[in-house]
Design goal:
Layout (H helix, E strand, L loop, with lengths): L21 E7 L2 E12 L2 E11 H34 L2 H4 L9
Antiparallel strand pairs: 1-2, 2-3
Length: 104
């Protein structure tokens, strides 16, 4: 589980305080993580900061789960495209025997 911050906790947010978004990589108690700190504004005034983070291991696990599915759908799409190209390239009289050519 990611670290929880409550009102008043200190973040590495010096650049975010004037209104900039900060994305930082750090190693915490849960291992390597990436966190984004985003200012909450009211007009031109910064009213607060919102921080959200995710562990690098969680992202790696999700990628490991989704990459085989992505490759499977890619292979299926290539096979369907190849089959469609093959059908389109066939001679019209062989592909559509019911049609007859009109003699000139």
């Amino acid at each position: 589980m990611a670290a929880r911050f409550t009102v008043g906790d200190r973040l590495h947010s010096e650049p975010a305080t004037p209104g900039e978004v900060v994305i930082e990589t750090f190693t915490g108690t849960m291992g390597p993580s990436v966190r984004a700190v985003i200012p909450v504004t009211d007009g031109d005034q910064v009213r607060g900061l919102v921080a959200a983070g995710v562990g690098v291991a969680a992202v790696s696990q999700e990628l490991d789960r989704q990459v085989p599915v992505l490759f499977g759908f890619t292979l299926l799409a290539l096979l369907l495209a190849g089959f469609g190209s093959w059908l389109a390239s066939r001679d019209e009289t062989k592909a559509f025997p019911a049609r007859t050519k009109i003699a000139a």
